[in-house]
Amino acid sequence: MRLSRFHLHTTKETPADADVVSQQLMLRAGMIRKLAAGIYTWTPLGLRVLRKVEGIVREEMNRAGALEMLMPSVQPRELWEETGRWQKFGGQLLKIRDRKDAEFCYGPTHEEVVTDWARSELSSYKQLPVNVYQIQTKFRDEIRPRFGVMRAREFLMKDAYSFHLTPECLARGYQVMFDAYTRIFERLGLRFRAVQADSGAIGGNASQEFHVLADSGEDLIAYSTGSSYAANVEKAEAAAPGPRPVAAEAMARVATPAQTTCEDVAALLGLPLERTVKSVAVVGASGFCLLLVRGDHQVNEVKAANLPAIGADYRPATEEEIVAHLGCKPGFIGPVSPQREITVVADRTVAAMADFVCGANTEGFHLTGVNFGRDLPEPALVADIRSVVEGDLSPDGQGTLALCRGIEVGHVFQLGQTYAKSLGATVLDENGAAQVMYMGCYGIGVSRIVAAAIEQNHDAAGIIWPEPMAPWQVAVCIINPKNDPAVAEAAEALHGELQALGIETVLDDRGLRPGPMFADIELLGIPHRVVVSERGLAAGTFEYRARRAEAAEALDKAALLERLR
Ligand code: ATP
Ligand code: MG
Ligand code: MG
Ligand code: MG
C-alpha cells in the first residue's frame, strides 16, 4: 500500500469536543468521522483496524465451534412484544415505522430474532447444542453517547447465542465461550480482566464481563489481592455483608429527621464538605424522609423533614420536569408513585446519591437501571459513597479488595430458559417430550475494542497499536529530497519484499519532510518504522525504529528482516 494513494487525513489539533484520548487520537489520525451524535463513519484507515479485531474475533469463534450467520437489523415489533421487551427495553430501543405504518425497531441485540430462528429451525435434541453468531451493526439510543465509538449509538457487535437441552450443557457451552473470549483478548494484546457481573433482571445463573483495564474506563472493578475473585462493583456490592459503616450510619440518620449540619452530612457520607454544600441532596428511606442540602441556599444547616412537611423552598414537580431536569429519558423514571405531585426537583447529582443510598427508591420517583456517570453526569459523588471500598475484605474471605477502572468489551451470559420460554422455543428430547431450550448469549463490542486499545496504549505522539490490531505492521518511509531514483527504488524494493514475506507494509511515498512524516506515522501507531534515505543507502543500512523505542538504529538488510519477521 502506498500512502500517496491512501486517503490519509491527519490533524495536529486536538478536537475540542473529544473527551477521551482514544476519541481524540482516532479523530486526529482520521480513523473515524462523526456524522451525528454517537454515529460515525469508519474511514479506510479506521476500517483496517476494525477488520483486524473482527478477524480475530471471527477466527476464535469459529475455532470454538460457533457458526456464523447474519440476522436482520430491522426487527418487527410483534416479536419484541412476545418477550415484553418492546416496552421494557426502554429509551435505548430505536423504534421505526414503515410506509404501511407497521412498527419495527433497529436491533440493539438479537435474543428475540435468534430465538425465533431457533423455534422454527430446531426441533430435536439431536440438533443441540448449537451456537450461532454474527458480527453486525447494532443501534442503541444511548442516553449520553460519548467517548466516540466507545459509547456510540451505532456500533459493531459480535453477538453469539447458544442453545442447549440441559443446564449442564449450557454451563459447558458457556465455559467454551469464556475460554474463546480469553483467547481473543490475549491475541489482541490487551491487558484485561474477566469479572463476575450481575445477571440482573433477566435471571440466569452466571454472567461475566471482560474489561480492558484503563483509568478512563466507565466501570469500576473490584478484585481481591489474595485470590482470583474479581467482580464489577455492582456485583461486589451485592456480595458485601452490608453497607459500609458511613453509608449505614447516614441512612440511619436520615431515617430520623432532625436538625443536622452540612458538616455532619459530609462526615457521614465521607464526602468533602464543598461538594455536599454545592449539591442538593435528596435521600429517601423507608420513612419517606428527604434530606435536603442546599449549597445555593446560603444555609449551613440541613433541612430534614418528612415529605409532607417540606417547606415553601421546595415546590412539587411533575414527572416531565424531573425528566427534563435530569436530562434523561422518561424510561429511566418509573414507576412513579401515585404521590408524584409531592416529588421534589433535585439536583441530578443528588438524585444519584438518593438512588444509591436508598437502593433506588425515593418516594415519588424512582430511577431504574441507571448507571450514573454514564447515563447521567457527575459520577464522583456516587463513587465516593460506594459500600465497597479499597481494603474491604474480599467476599470470598481471601485477601482484601482493590479497585480499578475498566472498559466493558465483552459479556457472557447464561440466560437459561427466559427467552426460550416466552417465545416457545422447544425441542423434542430422547423420549419425544417437548423441552424448553436453555440459552446462553455472548457479546463482544468489536468497535469499542478499537477505542479501548488506544485508551490502554498511547503516548504523547499518538496511538501505539498492539501488533495484531495495527493497520500495517511496518511503515517504509522515503526521505529523498533530491529525488534520487536509487532511493525510491530501494524503498519500493523493500516494501515489495516485506509484503512478499506476508508483513503488512505501507510505503510513505508522500514526499513529506521527515518531521511531519514521522509525526503521522507515530500518530497512526504503526509498530515498526523503516527509513530509506540516501545516507543509509550509502552506508548499506536502513534506519529502524520500533514505535515504543527511545531511538532509531541503523540495521543492514539481514538484521532488519530478522527484526521484522
Ligand atoms: P454498557 O454497560 O457499556 O452499556 P452493555 O452491558 O449495555 O454495555 P451488552 O448488552 O453486554 O452491553 O453488549 C455487549 C457488548 O457490546 C458490551 O460488552 C460492549 O462491549 C458493547 N457495547 C454495548 N453498548 C455499546 C455502545 N453504546 N457502544 C459501543 N459498544 C457497546
Ligand atoms: Mg448499555
Ligand atoms: Mg454493562
Ligand atoms: Mg453488558
Automatic annotation (TrEMBL):
Annotated protein name in UniProt: Proline--tRNA ligase
Entry keywords, A to Z: Aminoacyl-tRNA synthetase, ATP-binding, Cytoplasm, Ligase, Nucleotide-binding, Protein biosynthesis
InterPro entries, per database record: aa-tRNA-synt_IIb, aa-tRNA-synth_II, aa-tRNA-synth_II/BPL/LPL, Anticodon-bd, Anticodon-bd_dom_sf, Pro-tRNA-ligase_IIa, Pro-tRNA-synth_IIa_bac-type, Pro-tRNA-Synthase_IIa_type1
HAMAP family: Pro_tRNA_synth_type1
GO molecular function terms listed in the Swiss-Prot or TrEMBL record: aminoacyl-tRNA deacylase activity; ATP binding; proline-tRNA ligase activity
One GO location term (cellular component): cytosol
GO biological process annotation, one example: prolyl-tRNA aminoacylation
Coiled coil: none
Keyword Nucleotide-binding: yes
Subunit organization: Homodimer.
Domain Aminoacyl-transfer RNA synthetases class-II family profile residue range list: 38-466
Family, per entry: Belongs to the class-II aminoacyl-tRNA synthetase family. ProS type 1 subfamily.
Subcellular location: Cytoplasm
Origin superkingdom: Bacteria
Enzyme class per UniProt: ligase
Pfam families: HGTP_anticodon, tRNA-synt_2b, tRNA_edit
Chain's role: Catalyzes the attachment of proline to tRNA(Pro) in a two-step reaction: proline is first activated by ATP to form Pro-AMP and then transferred to the acceptor end of tRNA(Pro). As ProRS can inadvertently accommodate and process non-cognate amino acids such as alanine and cysteine, to avoid such errors it has two additional distinct editing activities against alanine. One activity is designated as 'pretransfer' editing and involves the tRNA(Pro)-independent hydrolysis of activated Ala-AMP.
Description of its domains: Consists of three domains: the N-terminal catalytic domain, the editing domain and the C-terminal anticodon-binding domain.
EC number per UniProt: 6.1.1.15
Catalytic reaction equation(s): tRNA(Pro) + L-proline + ATP = L-prolyl-tRNA(Pro) + AMP + diphosphate
